[in-house]
What we know:
By secondary structure, the chain is α/β, with parallel strands linked by helices.
Amino acid sequence: MKVIMIHHPHTFQKDEFPPLALALGFFDGVHQGHQKVIQTAIEIAKEKGYASAVMTFDPHPSVVLGKGNTSIRYITPLQDKINLIEKLGVDYLFVIRFTSAFASLEPAQFVQKYIAGLHAKHVIAGFDYTYGKFGKGTMETLSEHAQGRFDVTTVSKLEKDEEKISSTSIRALLTDGKMIEAKHLLGRFYTTKGTVIHGEKRGRTIGFPTANIAQHQDYFIPKNGVYAIRILVADDWREGVCNIGYKPTFNDPTQARLSIEVHIFDFATSIYGEEVTLEWHARIRDERKFNGIDELKTQINKDKQTAIQYFDELNII
């Protein structure tokens, strides 16, 4: 897949690209609804003899258009999004730098410069896709703006258990710690990346050494609590339990910093400085304060057994 980063105003010429079947969207999560849009573009490209393409944007429009110092945590930060889209078999990925100048384009200007101007011959997007200044362009107006230069396919709403599959609904599930339900909408378990750093090293003193993860800031962090997880470290997937929270047994939660600590089963290798991927499987319980070390150790062992049983039932090979 060829990744093309575009800053507005761009200077690309139409003849620099083959005829394209172009999927449009922000695609945070590359969830099953997004996959339907992208797969439709791939199928049309094969049918028509075009190259398949996806157009996305970075950062999220709310960062530029929101009031104050707006920031957003992503289900799939840009590099993860690129990797997932590449796995779907797309030929071209256009990443448009979303700026205030780009956002001020009238819908017809966006179509002229960024769709027809990049040699799109067929455009595919979800039913609720909008474009141009104030989002005035819709899938209803896109055919008008096309002026016969390209065809348009609108992908209808995709639902799971009568709920629209959307990035918003997935974030709501992650906020509630409902990782299994989020997996059903994503089509895969939710993953985040981070780096193993030095922590308080308290875990090793109580028989449960942990890897302290400095999460990359762009990721949406699930609800505090204890989870069954898998961790990819040095190209090897391992099972474990993870605690997200403030360790109230040892700290004042109002003063402590959020920590993400993983106890990896049957693992004793030093991995400081390693970049790791966490795959979030099932939330086991809330974080809580214990009456001493012994009570904490008993509970951690219970959590470990719960996670082991979960993975045994999941039959991950």
